[in-house]
Amino acid sequence: MSTMTTIMLMPPKATSLQHSNFKPSTLRSRSSPTKSSYPTVRMQTRFHRLIEDQGIVLMPGCYDALSAAIVQQSGFTAGFISGYALSASVLGKPDFGLLTPPEMAATARTVCAAASMIPIIADADTGGGNALNVQRTVRDFIAAGAAGCFLEGICVASRLYLQRSMLQKLHPQEMPLEIQTFS
Question: Per the record, which residues fall in region Disordered (predicted)?
């Protein structure tokens, strides 16, 4: 069994496996892993079509050219660049946001080149900071060949205006510490 991380995406109309068009046989492409089902279509469009056609897309995580080639050669129809796996392989540390967006985009370029017949979605973490950094990061991932990317929102502690009742609902045992932190 592989230790690769997987993400399953479902179309908005499907609310569970039982209500979607999920069939285990659709998790892998029946065509040759080196031939795309949509050879002349942009990767973003290919990914959207996969979701429409399959209902659920199983995307093994990869972190370098070799793992991406394995994903493609194994017959999967898509893959994603795992931020945690990338950080662990490059830095030997968990995904604490230590990799910069240009480093992640450079890896995306080699991953997408190694698995050029399937769409690859990349973990872009927070995009690198403010809105301009996020725009640049997304452009860099597109230029690298990624079909899309995940972006995470962050909260800046100095801009949080939390009410005591909100904190009690989140972590009642840590409320005094949280109030000190955000006050």
Answer: 16-39
44-99 pLDDT per residue, tens? 788 889 999 998 999 999 999 999 999 999 999 999 999 999 999 999 999 888 99
Instruction: Give the C-alpha separation, 141 to 149, whole Å.
Output: 7
pLDDT at 138: 92
Query: Cα–Cα distance between 151 and 136 in angstroms, integer?
Result: 13
Neighbours of 180 (CB within 10 A): 8
Three-state DSSP at 150 gives: strand
Query: pLDDT tens across 114-127, in order?
Result: 999 999 999 999 89
Residue ranges of the domains in the chain?
Answer: 6-152, 156-183
The architecture (CATH level 2) of 6-152 comes to: Alpha-Beta Barrel (3.20)
Contacts of 89 (CB under 8 A, 6+ apart): 63, 64
For 54, residues 6+ apart whose C-beta sits below 8 A from its C-beta are 21, 26, 27, 77
Pull the structure tokens for residue 73.
Answer: 């050669």
Range list of β-strands (E), the chain: 6-9, 57-62, 79-81, 120-123, 148-150
Q: Hey, how many other C-beta atoms are within 10 angstroms of the C-beta on 88? A: 14
